[in-house]
Here is the input.
Amino acid sequence: LFVDFKGYVDGEAFSGGAAEDHPLEIGSGEFIPGFEEQLVGMNVDEERDIVVQFPAEYGNQNLASKEATFKVKIKSLKEQIFPELDDDFAKDVSEKETFAELRDEIRENLEDTATRRTQTKLENTLIEKIVAGSTIVLPQSMISRQTEHLFDDFRNRLMYQGMSLEQYLEYTSSTEEELRDQMIPEARQQLERDLVLELVAEKEGISVLEEEINSKIDEMVEGSQQPDQAREMYEKQKESLSTSLKMEKTLAFLVDSANVSVVLHKTDASEADSQTDTQESEGSE
Here is the structure.
C-alpha cells in the first residue's frame, strides 16, 4: 500500500516524521512496532490517527521512548500475487530448467551462507578471546586515524544511498563530533583485531607468496566486463591484497589450532605507530 503520514511528539511535528505516497508492505517491520498493525482494515482515502511509542534504543535519542501520533491516510492498496512455483517459474528467474534444480541451488546457497556465518562467528570469537587476554595500548593518534577512516567510509555510503551527511545529521539530531565519538569503539576494536592478527602471523611465520596474490587477482578479474582495466587496478593494490590474504590465512590458522594465546604489552604508547613489544605464551583457549 501507499500512505501519507505525518508524525507528532508532544503536539509538535518532528524532522523525518513525514512522507507522501510512501510504499509500505504490511508485516515488513519497516516502521515503529505497532504502526503497521494499526493500518489493517483501513480503506483507500481513509484517515486515521495512529499512536505508537518509539523504542528506548531508537537511533534518534530525542525521540527514544517517547509517544508519537501519526496522522495517516491510505492513498492506494495493491495485492501481491505470487507466481506458481513450477518449471516455468524456474526458467523465468534463473538458468535452471526445472523447479527442483532451482530448489537444490537455493538450498546449497543457504547452506553455504550458514557455513560462512558460522565460520565468521568462530573467527570473531577466537579473536575476542585473544584480545581479552591481551594488554594492548593504542596511541590516540592511531585511534583518531582509524575513526576518521570509518567516518569517511560512512559518509561515502550515505552518498551512494542518495543522502548527504548533513541530511543524516539533521534526521538523527546529532553532530559530526557525536557521530565520530560513536565510531571510536569500533575503530579501537578493528585496530586491536588487526594488531593481534599481525602478531600471530609474525609468530607463526605466516606469509603470502607472489603466486597467491596473482591467483587472487585472476579470481577477481574473472567475469569482469573490462578485464584489462580490472587487472590493472588490482595490480596497483597488491600490497593491500597481500595484507588481506595474510589475515585470511592467519584466521584459518587460528580456527585450525584454536590454542593460541598472545599477550601484548606496550611500554611506550608514543612508539606504537612504528613498534610493538610483545610477550607471548602458548596455552589452550
